[in-house]
Amino acid sequence: MRAEQHARDITMKAERGAATLRARIQEEQQQAHAVVQEQHTRAEQRARDLIAEAERSAAALRARIQEEQQRTSADLQEQQARAERDLQENRKRADALIAAVTEESFRAKDAANQRIVELTTEAQVLQQNSEKLKNTIAALKNVIEGYGDRYVIPTYGLLDELAEDFGHEEAGQQLKLSRDQMRQKIKSGTAAACDYVEEHRKQTAIDFVLDAFNGKADSILASVKKDNHGTLSQKLRDAFALVNHNGQAFRNARITPEYLQTRIDELLWASRAHELKELEREEQRVLRERIREEEKAQREYERAQKDAQKEEELLRKAMEKAQREIDRASDAQKARFEEQLRDLQEKLTSAEEKNKRALSMAQQTKVGHVYIISNLGSFGEDIYKIGLTRRLEPLDRIRELGDASVPFEFDVHALISSQDAPALERELHKRFVRMQVNKVNPRKEFFRLSLHDIRQEIERMGISARWTLAAECREYKETLAIERAMQDKTFREEEWMQKQLAEQPIEQEKLAG
């Protein structure tokens, strides 16, 4: 009981403590609420004070800003007006300066253009004088030093043009036309000119330079040959330059370029006509040589026929005699005479064949041999002559080619028998035309190529021949050996010289005989 009472006491005490605590808490809350309320009120008041102060500051600031804006606007307007005035003045000064500069540039440009014209004119005059002086110097140099080979030009171009466009008569007609044009220019007064005003002096000066130039030109044209067209053409130009240079002392008395060209044309046609004349001479020479070769071949055929006929006649007589001997001979002797008779019969058959062959070749003018030969010592390596001969003995013709006109004898690489030797020779020359050694005169039958190429081409044509590929060139090789021995001092030179000199009179006697 006491415990329960004690518990109740404790509980009541606790409740009283809790009530006291709640009262205190409520009081504290009220106090706190009052404090908060007061602080809130003070804060609101402070806020209102701050807002009011801010509004006052803002109003003052706006007033100041407005005042500053008004003052700044006035300054800006004044500055803008001042800048506008400065801009207008600067524009005026710039326009004036531009106008002055433009005017000055126009004046400078006009002056520069005028100076350019003057300098161009001076340059042209100097260039003309320079060219004249160069031509004069070159002409004097040519006259003093000679022309040499500097102006030699290939004549093949001239001949080729002429072959395509003109005949020999045409060349002569054109030459005559050039001469007529030359005389016509002199008559019409277009051959020369002069700056003299007075007519008599002018004509005298023109006659002077014409006489001087024509004298030189006629002398130059008189020496025209087949191979000096380039040199003579330059001589005409040099004469033109020298005469015109000397004519400056007579108020620029001068030969006109047109008249010079007329004389050059005259030289050209004279050269072409001369070339054709030389060509005709060469054709005649080749024709005469071929006729001589044909006549020699014909004489060989006739001599071979006569020899064969004579041999036949002797053999027949010998056979008749042998037959008579057989008829009279005993049986023991008959065998020997019959053997002689058979031998004579074989010789007679051979002689008859020779006679027939000679007769056949004499009747057939195209039958012959095409030969391929070389001469290493005379012409060097890979130079071959391809020609033909109608001789019964073709080697005779080749030996003639190796006479005193060349230092060494020819080596034979092939002899091709042909029923139409001229046609075969022409075909081979045609196939090897690009390899000609002499590309001006096609009648020179030498070609620069290898023997292998020649053989290959002939075999391609279906022609068979016996070939000797290695050149013997015996005399040439012996000569080289002698020269080496001379250099090495291992050669009996005195003995060799005596032998060489001893053989010369024999040759002279042979020629005299």
From TrEMBL:
Location of the region described as Disordered in the Swiss-Prot/TrEMBL record: 65-89
Signal peptide bounds: none
Ranges annotated as biased composition (Polar residues): 71-80
Keywords linked to the UniProt accession: Coiled coil
Domain Bacteriophage T5 Orf172 DNA-binding: 378-461
Pfam family, one: MUG113
Superkingdom classification of source: Bacteria
Classification via InterPro entries: Phage_T5_Orf172_DNA-bd (IPR018306), SNIPE (IPR025280)
Full protein name: Bacteriophage T5 Orf172 DNA-binding domain-containing protein
Species of origin: Melittangium boletus DSM 14713
Lineage of the organism: Bacteria, Pseudomonadati, Myxococcota, Myxococcia, Myxococcales
